[in-house]
Design brief:
disordered N terminus; 3-stranded antiparallel β-sheet; two-stranded antiparallel ribbon; elongated; alpha+beta
Length: about 120
């Protein structure tokens, strides 16, 4: 099915690609990684158990070295970092969908319509 958009024919695949680009444009700021809150339990000399809430930790993979790194974040930034990570998940999902759609479009463009062309005398080459 073809639709006309701005004087250009658009297939269903092209519309999905455009919608995915629009989704990527709405993501905004994002972080790729994870964040966690840790609690440390320890036993005091008198035998009581005490729980210490540790500072939240943001874990990510360094692009240059490929190694995981950890950064402590302030408690008041925890919710904002969680939102940025959710945006990162939306970005990665849209990126995977876009890659799959572009691959499908590029492979469909390269398909041969006629695998066995017929020569002028009716003989196969």
């Amino acid at each position: 099915m073809y639709l006309y958009s701005g004087g250009v024919k658009m297939s269903d695949l092209d519309r999905k690609i455009s919608a995915t680009f629009a989704e990527l444009a709405t993501v905004g700021d994002f972080l790729l990684g994870s964040v966690r809150r840790a609690q440390a339990k320890y036993i005091k000399k008198d035998g009581t158990i005490s729980i210490h809430k540790a500072q939240p930790v943001f874990t990510y993979t360094d692009a240059e070295t490929g190694k995981q790194k950890k950064v402590r974040i302030r408690e008041e930034c925890f919710e904002r970092v969680k939102q940025l990570i959710e945006n990162g998940k939306r970005y990665r999902k849209a990126e995977r969908v876009l890659c799959a759609l572009m691959l499908r479009r590029n492979l469909s463009d390269s398909k041969k319509k006629d695998r066995f062309p017929v020569a002028g005398d009716g003989q196969h080459r």
